[in-house]
Amino acid sequence: MPTANPPIVARQAWGANPANTPAQVISTPTPELWLHHTGSSGLHGAAGMRSLQANARSGGYVDLEYTVVVDTDGTIYMSRGVGRDTAATGGRNSISHAICVMGNFENDPATDRIVDTVASCVLWLSAQRAIQSAQITGPHRDAPGNSTACCGRNLIARIGDINRAVAGGGVTPPAPTPPATSGAPLTTVASPKGSQGRVGTARPVPAFGTVVLDNGARCAGDVASGNARVWVNPDKTVQQVGAALLDIAPTVGGDGQPDGRGFVALYDLKNGTVGTYVVPWA
After folding, report:
1. Tens digits of per-residue pLDDT, 7-24?
2. Which of 211, 197, 198, 195 is closest to 250 using CA atoms?
3. Residues 209-233: what's their mean pLDDT?
4. Domains defined along the chain, listed by start
């Protein structure tokens, strides 16, 4: 179900270069919000974001276009962010934000997951007071002065569904409760390796900002700590802002099911976004 507080992968987490967008600031709230697609095939995930950004910069743009980018698995990636010229909708960039979905929707199906995720982006932008009206203004194709098939016939056909989902209000979850100082675990992820017949596990300890590996579990970058091993996020951004560890989750494959590659650590980056860090098992 759409939510006004969706997790958004921060630029630092997907490997943006530069980490902070150099795009020009625009006035908010904007009267327009346009929907785009990348028109690409096979570009997904953080690697897809880095490739899209590299292509944009090689084409003369200062950064990847758009406000946020939605992947087909429901992941939202921060692109230029709120209050920045998106360079996505010719002649409208100073008065609009832009949501882009990965894929070519002239051919690809626009799934219910995509509809809900785009609706969440709209609700989030509204909650950030980035847009005057909580709805998609239209597809890139319909923006005055633009000649394009974007965002593809299949996604265009679902803009009405997106706006109806937004009108339903979505779900605004309560703010995360600060972790208890006792360090009680939130989620435990099973490791493919264990010890003495016991299943190895990873569990978050938010009070210390670490992930503890028990029963022989190992992950990339872990260090010994007593009878167990721990993982501490080495990312400088996490350290500089004092980002709180919220939880962990298993990595998933294209079918949305845990794939046994490792775990994902989620951090509150204190700027309205959640940073996600994929940590493979060792």
Report:
1. 999 998 898 988 889 999
2. 211
3. 85
4. 8-167 (3.40.80.10), 189-280 (no CATH)
